[in-house]
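TA notes, week 10

Several of you asked for a full example with nothing omitted. So below is the full record: structure tokens for the whole chain, then the designed sequence directly under it. When grading your own attempts, check the secondary structure regions first.
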């Protein structure tokens, strides 16, 4: 493990701040529509236990689990067979992929930086709604 990885591994706030920077600090529902499959997905990001609270007149039929934010970086390295993609593995089921590549532009050459969630905790509730 190199010096940079060791420094970040010891600071519990860095992994949490990285994830919060990408997904925000407020709990929310993410709704994704896949029209070609006639499917709507609802993902619950309930890190601070604010989603699906009962009101004065109604109690929910489901419980939205609390999602644990990461506290440490487990591994950091290049994606296998890639020279431009780095993967970061955190505890609690989080995994990110960072990729730098050429952006196709007719105006000027440029680079593009992509960040993707490769893995998320199983406590993120995924609700599938099929429609016709």
């Amino acid at each position: 493990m190199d010096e940079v990885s060791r420094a970040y591994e010891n600071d519990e706030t860095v992994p949490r701040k990285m994830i919060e920077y990408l997904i925000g600090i407020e709990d929310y529902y993410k709704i994704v529509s896949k029209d070609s499959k006639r499917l709507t997905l609802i993902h619950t990001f309930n890190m601070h236990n604010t989603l699906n609270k009962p009101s004065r007149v109604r109690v929910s039929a489901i419980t939205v689990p609390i999602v644990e934010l990461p506290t440490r970086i487990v591994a950091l390295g290049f994606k296998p067979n890639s020279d431009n993609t780095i993967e970061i593995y955190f505890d609690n089921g989080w995994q990110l992929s960072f990729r730098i590549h050429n952006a196709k532009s007719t105006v000027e050459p440029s680079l593009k930086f992509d960040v993707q969630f490769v893995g998320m905790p199983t406590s993120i509730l995924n609700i599938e709604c099929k429609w016709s």
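The radius of gyration is 18 Å. Use that as a sanity check on your answer.
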